[in-house]
Amino acid sequence: MTLSVMFGARATSWSDITGLLDGSLDTMAEAAVASRLPRTLLAIMAGAALGVSGAAMQGVTRNPLADPGLLGVNAGAALAVVIGIAWFGIELASDYLWLAIVGAGVSAVVVYLIASLGRGGATPLRLALSGAVVSAALSSLTSAIILPRADIGGLIQSWLIGGVGGATLDQITPALPFVISGLLICGLSARKLNMLALGDDMASGLGERVALVRLMAALGAILLCGGITAVCGPIAFVGLVVPHVCRLVVGSDYRWVVPLSALAGALLLTSADIAGRLIARPAELDVGIMTALVGAPAFLWIVRRHKVKSL
After folding, report:
1. pTM score, whole prediction
2. How far apart are CA 228 and CA 206, in angstroms?
3. What are phi and psi of 85, to 5 degrees?
4. Reduced to 3 states, what is the DSSP secondary structure of residue 198?
5. More confident site: 93 or 229
6. pLDDT digit string (tens) for 164-175?
């Protein structure tokens, strides 16, 4: 967090950070540090939310490739927000949140239903393919809505890249209840996700209500993904990469994977934001671009490592 408020287009020092403790903004450096505080808080919150959301989705679907971006959840949230802005003139952040959560939920259900069609149910391959198809279709619809609207096109295109730059406490505050609720729900679902990993029949035999467990964990994941997408825009690959790294450290016990995914996700997104500021200095690369640069090779590594058994 300290590194995040220190590094950027303008160099700052430790004295500039401590100078804020008395509430003064006497220098440009102190003003730069003050502007980076909400950005850093948002990066931590978004990384934690996306990491936990990915872990929950992988547990719910028993799919190592599950991720809010790959399964079309981010695209659904983005499309809902764009429709709200373009067609209904919605401007309030609180309305964005509800739209994003509804869009994320609907797209998740559609992807799962499509993948469940036919013999064999929702295998990892079918989920990945249906997620890719739905995500592409939703992204195309989003572009089709934006293109004729020059008045909002620039604003929305920037939001769609995914980033935490320019964050303010007024933007972050409305998302907090959704993120906290999602983290709590996913945390409470962790032990039950361990049961799901044994298979539906085994989990049912041990007394778990499989459908209720899936609904509970999916609700937590959608609250996290929808809430963060409304504020930051769609940020891909964090939810895919972070849980896998956490499993390498603590094994497959979701009671450890879920909380560690929150910490690792926050660290990854904050680090990516810092790197984006330093690489393109004095300009910057949005964190959505940085995570894509890291996430694409990581995705290939995951596919090769698992040999995607069900593929």
Report:
1. 0.84
2. 35
3. -75, -45
4. coil
5. 229
6. 877 888 888 888
